[in-house]
Amino acid sequence: MSTTISRNDLAGFNQAGFDQMLDRRIDPVWITQARKDAWSAFESMGWPNPRDENWMRSDLRGFKLDRYQPIDETETQSVENAPVRLLQGVDVGGSLRSENGLVTLESLDPKYAAQGVIFGSLSRCAREHSELVKKHLHSQIDIHVDRFAALQAAMWTDGYFLYVPKNVVVDKPLHIHAAMGDGKVDLTHMLVVLEEGAETTILFESSSPSDDAGGFHCGGLELVLNARSNLRFVGLQDWGCGAWHFAHKRARVGQDANLQWTIAAMGSRFAQVDQQVALVGPGASSHVNGVMFTRDKQHLTYNTIQQHSAPHCTSDFLYKAVLQDRSRTVWRGMIKVDVGADKTDGYQRNDNLLLSDNARADSIPGLEIKADDVRCTHGSTSGRVDEELIFYAQSRGFTRVEAVRLIVTGFFQQIFDRVTIESVREALGVAIARQVRQYE
Amino acid sequence: MSHILRIENLHVAVDGKAILRGVNLEMKFGETHAMMGPNGSGKSTLGLAIAGHPNYVITEGTITLDGEDITAWEADQRARAGIFMAFQRPVAIPGVKTADFLRHAATNVRRPDRKEGEDLIPMRDFRKELKAKMSQLKIDTEFARRYVNDGFSGGEMKRAEILTMAMLSPKFSILDETDSGLDADAVKLASASIAEIGRDKMGLLIITHHDKLLEHNPPQFTHVMLGGRIVETGGAELARELHDHGYERIRKTYPDAEAANQEMLAKEEAVVV
Fold it and tell me: Where do the structural domains in chain B lie, given as residue ranges?
C-alpha cells in the first residue's frame, strides 16, 4: 500500500482542512464565528438536489470537491500568463489582483484615498475597517441557499472590498483581476459599498493561464448601492475551459440609484451563477447585459432574479448567448414584484444563436407579480445561424470564419449598444472574435 | 483589360433535382449580356451557381475565369477573383453596419491574399471613397450607418447591391432581377446606376424579365433560357422581341426544353405546397 502525502500536508475541504485554515488566518473574531456557522451549515447540507428547479438542468456528476485543496494563506501565490483583457487603453484609478484567491497587488490613486475611498484586499479591510465590512459582508447572500454558498462563506480566502463615501465620484475605472492556476482554487468574495450619491466604475475579470486550464472557483459578490449612487460594473469571466465556476451575485439598489451591470461569460467547463438584483428604494433602476459564448462541452447556467420591492423601479435584463459545438446554456429569468411595488417597469429578454446542431440553449423566463399596477414584459428566441447569411457574406469576399464572426458580432451588437464604456465594447469584441471556432 | 468568364456544359442540381442541363456561355470583360427566360427556366440558378452557393451543386461541366477552373472554389474565393452577384433578395445582417461590412468586403476583394486579422483599408480613405460613390449613386450617406439590408425597402436593397458592386469593382457582375419589385422611377435610377458603374468597366450578365433595365444597358448578346438550357442567343433585338411578344415562339420552337421547364415548375410547386 502506498501513501501519498498531500502537498504541504494540507487537508482538503473537510473538517481538518477548515480547522487548519482557521489556525492560519488572522481574522476578527466575528469573522471566525461567521465562518464556523457557515461551516456547520455546509456540513449539515447535501449537494444540490437535481430536482431543485435551479439545478435540474445542471449536471454536477463530474464535480469532485476532494480533487481540490484549500490555498495556504501563508504562502505567496503566483499565477503566470493569465491574460488581462479589459485594461486596453484604460486609465485606471486603482487596481487589485488576486492569485488563487489571495490578493497580491493593491493600488489606489491617492486622490481617491484622500477622499475616503477604500479599495483593497477584503481580508485586510476586514481587519482594518472591521465595523464597515461587518455591516455588509454576507448581508445579501443567504449562506443556506446551497452548499456552495455555505462553503464560500466558511472558507473564503480573500477578495476585494470597495467603499466609496457619500457624494464621492471615482471618475476613473477600478480594475480587478482574478487569476487562478490550473487545478487550483479561487474562493474570493467581492463587497462593494457605495454611499449616497457615490459613483464609480468597476472592471472585473477572471482568467486562467491557458484555454483548457481547470480549477475550482466558488465566489460571492455583493453590491450595495445606497440612494442616488451610480455603479457601472463589468465582469468578464474567462476561466479555462476545465474550470468549475460557482457564484452567487447580489445587488441591492436604493432610492434613485442606478446599476449598469454587464456580464460576459466565455470560460469554464461548468458555470452555475445565481444573479439577483433587488430594487429596494423608489426610483431605483438596473440595466443588466449578459453575453455568453460557449464551445466544446461547456455548460453555463445563469439564474437571474429581478426583485422589485419598491414602487417606480425599473429593471431591464438582456441576455444573449451564442453556442458552438456541443455546448449548452441555461438561462432562467424571473421578475418578482412585491406587494406595493406599483409602477414597476420590468423587462427581460434572452436570445440564443446556435452555430451547431449539437448545441442546446434552454430559456426559461418567468414572472411572479403581486402588485397591481405594473408593466412587465419578457421574451426569448433561439435559432440556428442562417446559412444564407454566411453565403451572402462569403459572396462579398468574407471567409466562412469571418462571416460567422460577423454574424455573431452583429448578434451581440444590441448588447454593445447598451455598454457605455468604449474600451469594454472593444475588449468584448476581441474576446468574442477569438472564441469563434475555425471551421473547416 | 481582357478577362473571360467561360461556362461550359454546366449541369446544376438543387436538393438532388437537376435544374441546369448543359449551359454554355462565354462573356468578355466590358460586354453586356442579357439573360431572359420564363419563370423556372434556371436563370437565377445559373447566377447562384456562378457565385458559388453551396446548395447549387455542379454535377457536370466547368466554370473558368481567365482560363482558371473555379468550379470547385468557395464563394469567397470567387468573390476575391472578381465574380459578383447582385441578389434578387439580399439577406439582412442585423447589428452589422453597412459601412463596416463594405470596408471588410472591399479589403478582402482588393487584397485577395489578405489573411484573417490583417489590417483593413484605412478608415479615412474608405469613408471618403464610400461617400463619393454614394453621392454618385444618389444614396443618402445615412445609409452607411444602417445595418446591412435591415429594414430596407425593395428599392434601397437594390441600390445597396449596386453600391456594393461599385465598391468591389468586380470583373464580372451578375445582376439577378435587379428591377423586380421596383416602381418605374426606381427602375430608371437602378438602370442608370448600373450603366454608370458597370458599363465597359466589367462584364455584365443582366438577368431580367423586362427590357427597362436594358434600355440603359443595351446588351450585345441576349440569351434565352428554357428548361435549364440556353436555347437561343441573339442581339438586343431578341430582348425586344421577347418583351413585346413573350415566350410563345420560344416555347413552340423548343418543345423538349419547354417540357423540361414544365416539369421543373411542377416539382417546384409540389415543394412549395
Answer: 4-272
Q: Does the structural domain B4-272 have CATH classification 3.30.43.10? A: no
Position A426 pLDDT exceeds 80: yes
Interface residue A426 vs chain B (CB under 8 A): no
Closest alpha carbon within chain B to A394: B76
DSSP assignment, residue B21?
E
Q: Does any domain span residue A5?
A: no
Contact B105 A396 (CB under 8 A): yes
Q: Which residues pair with B172 in a beta bridge?
A: B83, B203
pLDDT mean over A223-246: 97
- The minimal CB distance from A395 to the residues B85, B94, B116 is found for B85
Given pLDDT bands bounded at 50, 70 and 90, which one contains residue B52?
A: very high
Q: How many CB atoms are located within 10 Å of the residue A417 CB?
A: 11
Cβ–Cβ contact A394 with B under 8 A: yes
Structure-block grid coordinates of residue A148: 456552495
Q: Is residue A262 part of a domain?
A: yes
The set of long-range contacts for B52-58, using a CB threshold of 8 Å and a minimum separation of 24, is B52/A394, B52/A395, B52/B77, B52/B78, B52/B83, B53/A391, B53/A395, B54/A387, B54/A391, B55/B14, B55/B15, B56/B12, B56/B13, B56/B14, B56/B19, B57/B12, B57/B13, B57/B14, B58/B10, B58/B11, B58/B12
Q: Residue A100: left if φ>0, alpha if ψ -120 to 50, beta else—which one?
A: left
Q: Do A193 and A209 have their domain in common?
A: yes
Same domain for A403 and A301? no
Cβ distance of A397 and B94 shorter than 8 Å: no
CA nearest neighbour of B34 among B258, B260, B240, B255 = B240
Q: Are strands B147-148 and B172-176 parallel, antiparallel or unpaired?
A: unpaired
Q: Is B94 on the interface with A (CB under 8 A)?
A: yes
Q: Total domain count for chain A? A: 2
* Statement to judge: residues A183 and A308 lie in one domain: yes
| Sign of the torsion formed by the C-alpha atoms of B190, B193, B199 and B201 | negative
For residue A177, pLDDT beyond 90? yes
**Within this chain, do residues A335 and A222 fall inside the same structural domain, yes or no?**
yes
C-alpha neighbours within 13 Å on the C-beta side of residue B194: 32
Q: Which domain holds residue A436?
A: 386-440
